[in-house]
Amino acid sequence: MIEELKHIWNVCFDDDEAYGNLYFSHAYSPENTLVHTVGGRAVAMLSLLPATLVTPAGERKARYVYAVATLPAFRGQGFSRQLAAQADAQMRAEGCELAIVVPASDALVGFYSRQGFAPAFFQRAVSFRTNRPDGFVPPEGISSDDTESGIQKIVTWRERFFSTGGCFVRWDAGLLSYAVRECRIAGGGAFYFSERDDEGYIIVEREGDTVTVKETAASPTLAPRLPAFLRQRYADSKTITFYLPPHSPLWSGHGLVRPAAMCKWFTPPCALTDGYFGLLGN
What percent of the chain has pLDDT over 70? Predict the structure, then answer.
């Protein structure tokens, strides 16, 4: 079965094979995967990754609806809708309070709206040109080695930085490791910084001449120096874009706010003012 699911992933997401191999070695689990078969063959899939919504009033159990895909020859037959209905039933049975999804296209926004999802999380994108010096001395960054202790640093710093403003989605160490490794395949990774009172991390990927900082957890005094670090490390790139929570104090007043994720509640909802999804959804 897993080879059939890998085939669905590779065909539907048009990824380098390394991405699918990484998912199935680091994030996949049979109990979190729903599969539709035709004649005993897997033709559609849907994953439910565990997540926790952390709010000022407490924690809410969630699932991230991920890797929803149907082989092209079997589309238009309602298989994704059937899997979505099964996913709803499973999440309700296990006591989940909400489901979260990141539509990959505008067309899918409509699809998920019809399944009961609504925009709930937003992010602010702040861009810099790499050919424009800013006068800051780059901080010393240390590349993550993906060890247990390295990922635990991200877990700890994430909690510290994002628990101070509104709501945020907490990922376990295994999924954070998956996200960092995925970024490394894309020419990036995680970088740590610690200089006197300045500390934090960034998680970066690169596509063509664009460097994307998928998550930034850094002190306000460190953040202005991060573009200089990235200009130095990726000197042949043209644009650096940071994705931030809307309420982030970093580069306050700059950038464009855009939808980041949608959610569906199975229990009475809580306000998601300034809610931050982050990292796995960018």
Answer: 98
Q: Tell me: the pLDDT tens digits for 185-214?
A: 999 999 999 887 788 999 999 999 999 999
Q: How many CB atoms are located within 10 Å of the residue 173 CB?
A: 12
CATH number belonging to the domain at 2-121+259-271+273-277, selected among 3.10.50.40, 3.90.660.20, 3.40.630.30, 3.40.50.2300? 3.40.630.30
User: Model confidence over 172-183: pLDDT tens digits?
Assistant: 999 999 999 999
Q: Where are the domains of the chain?
A: 2-121+259-271+273-277, 124-257
pLDDT confidence band for 145 (50 / 70 / 90): low
The answer to whether the beta carbons of residues 175 and 62 sit under 8 Å apart is no
In sequence order, what are the residues at sequence separation of 6 or more whose Cβ sits closer than 8 angstroms to the Cβ of residue 222? Answer: 139, 193, 195, 198, 199, 200
Q: Which two tokens stand for residue 81?
A: 């809708």
Give the DSSP letter of residue 78: S
* Arithmetic mean of pLDDT over the chain: 91
With a cut of 90, say whether residue 99 has pLDDT above it.
Answer: yes
- Say what the pLDDT of residue 28 is: 95
Residue 95: φ, ψ to 5°: 85, 20
**100 in Cβ contact with 51 (< 8 Å):** yes
At the fourth CATH level, which superfamily is domain 124-257?
Gcn5-related N-acetyltransferase (GNAT) (3.40.630.30)
In residues, how long is the chain? 282
DSSP tag of 251: T
Residue pair 178/19 in contact by the 8 Å Cβ criterion: no
Kindly report the number of other CB atoms within 10 A of residue 164's CB atom. Answer: 9
